Amino acid sequence: MIAFPPCKINLGLTILRKRADGYHDIETCFYPVPWTDILEIIKSGEFTFAASGLPIPGDPSDNLCVRAFRMIEREFSIGPVAMHLHKIIPAGAGLGGGSSDAAHTLKLLNRIFELDLTDERLEGYASQLGSDCSFFIRGKPAVGTERGNRLTPLEANPGDRHLIVVAPGIHIPTAAAYLDVHPYEASKSCADIVSGLPLWQWKDHLKNDFEKSVVARYPEIGRIKELLYEAGAVYASMSGSGSAVFGIFDKATQTPAELGNYRSWCGPLSV
User: Fold this and answer.
1) 8, 87, 107, 225: the active-site residue
2) Spatial contact of 13 and 191, defined as CB atoms under 8 Å apart
3) Where would you tag: which of 45, 101, 168, 270 has the fewest CB atoms within 10 A of its CB?
């Protein structure tokens, strides 16, 4: 059985406070983007995990897909499977590709072994794997609060817009990105801005709290954002803790030639 785990972008990201458990309370708007990996899982006589495509950092035995399988295996005593992940979404880019792979592992196992788990149950398992894993169970626009794992539907209709996502190949661990930010209580929520303000006003109101410190460390990321605005983007921002940057355009356009050496995706901004 095959799935195509998509990535996401963050429309705004506010870091509200540090929690007693070491995580942070945040508020962000998750939006799905059909730039996908490819994940295949079949029943097998023994468990195997193989990967191809872009390199995946870390020990393969600790891959989120493997961890998702081990979690369900312990809970339901399912049989072994063979897993193959073809990696297309760049890692460490703030696009949630690994989290999406894990969430879709849970969804495929639910179907293959006929576990009849509801989306709510699957979201509960996903939240144990990563703060944004839960979002990818349903993959619909959502407001993420607490660690990003508490989800409510996002009322947003971008209309006929075009999206360009650019990944510069800079790997930014989320934990490291948090070291340079200062939590605060925002006067206006990301959800209110996305749902209540026209797109052309987002530039002045919708912020990603990671962006300032990340761009200070990696000016290349800031230059990509500038180039997207120069190409006509109505709104541009870094996604998550970086390093990917996206631009939203009023009409279909090509990725600027100056960004041709980077991995990128472009297409309609739609669900």
Assistant:
1) 8
2) no
3) 45
Secondary structure (DSSP) of the chain: -EE--EEEEEEEEEEEEE-TTS-EEEEEEEEEEEEE-EEEEEE-SS-EEEEEES---S-GGG-HHHHHHHHHHHHH-PPPEEEEEEE-SPTTSSS-HHHHHHHHHHHHHHHHTT----HHHHHHHHHTT-TTTTHHHH-S-EEEETTTTEEEE------S-EEEEEE-S----HHHHHTT------SS-HHHHHHHS-HHHHHHH--BTTHHHHHHH-HHHHHHHHHHHHTT-SEEEE-TTSS-EEEEESS--PPPGGGTTSEEEEEE---
Q: Is 8 a catalytic residue?
A: yes
Tens digits of per-residue pLDDT, 162-188?
Answer: 999 999 999 888 777 887 788 877 778
Domains of the chain: 2-153 (3.30.230.10), 162-268 (3.30.70.890)
- Residue-wise burial string across 93-121, b where 16 or more C-beta atoms lie within 10 A, e elsewhere: bbbbbbbbbbbbbbbbbbeebeeebeeee
Cβ neighbours of residue 261 closer than 8 Å, sequence gap 6 or more: none
Structure token pair of residue 263: 């991995």
The single residue of 37, 101, 132, 209 carrying the catalytic annotation is: 132
Is there a catalytic annotation at residue 18? no
If you search the block for the tokens 């020990």, which residue do you land on? 59
pLDDT in tens, 86-103: 999 999 899 999 999 999
Query: pTM here?
Result: 0.95
